[in-house]
Design a protein that fits this description.
The protein has helices at about 20-30, 50-55, 125-145, 180-195, 200-205, 220-225, 240, and strands at about 5-10, 35-40, 60-65, 70-75, 80-85, 95-100, 105-115, 155-160, 200, 215, 230, 230-235, 245-250, 265-270. It is of the alpha+beta class and about 270 residues long. Strands 3-4-2-1-14-13 form a six-stranded mixed beta sheet. Strands 5-6-7-8-12-9 form a six-stranded mixed beta sheet. The relative contact order is 0.17. The protein binds one DNA strand of 15 nucleotides through loops.
Amino acid sequence: MKAASLKITTWNINSVRLRLPLVADFLKSQAPDVLCLQETKCRDAEFPMKDLHSLGYEHIAINGQKGYHGVAVISKRPLRFVEKRDFCEKGDARHICVEIDARSGPISLHNFYVPAGGDEPDVDINPKFQHKLDFLDEMRDWIVTEGVARGRVVLVGDLNVAPLEHDVWSHKALLKVVSHTPVEVEKLTAVLQAGAWIDAMRHFVPAEEKLYTWWSYRAADWEASNRGRRLDHILVSEALGGGLKRLDVLRDARSWTRPSDHVPVTIELSD
DNA sequence: ATGGTTGTAGCACAA
């Protein structure tokens, strides 16, 4: 008998090799069908394939590069590699698309790592911020021109923007902080509108409630200060919206030994 | 208001 649901997790792991023990613990305890990682920070040849295979995840698609960025899809179910797109044509490993079979039919799954954008939210002095804005514009155009959100589609990843007022610990304090500036929020909102995507996390948690997926390493006590942001997202196309069953933000993962600064976000969909 | 930490690579830079 097949499972009644399909569990998909997104997690910015901040080095998959360093945190392989955490990934293994997560897969054993939470057993998602599909785990999407960002910031794997290794070349494809260095990716810990065998360890993940032996944990029951035999189907893996990766787009890596040396030291920076890198995305991976790790699956219990068969997947078909579809493409890696080079947004902004810089040769960065920031996207991968696969197709996964659910009982109700195939699902296209896009895994993204959007540029963080540097410290200064000023395109005149900070080219990294310009890159981030260009990347978001290109995502929007691509979604429209290629009809990316038509059919059964899931888009996950570290989008590095916290769009709503309660996606950050203080809306006012973060208006000039990269990740929550009005121009970034406007561009991510345009990405959402371009595909008429459903924000799967906010489907379960009202907009008035605080919701975070990331807490800085720089806080003396991340849990006490709780200055989080919702940088990680799961978007589903309209065709899949009716099948949303459950959300889990694994806040505990931020207290694990040598943690990532991001925690795993899991969605359950009708199979 | 400022500065705080982490990873990779190799003592600088990105996040």
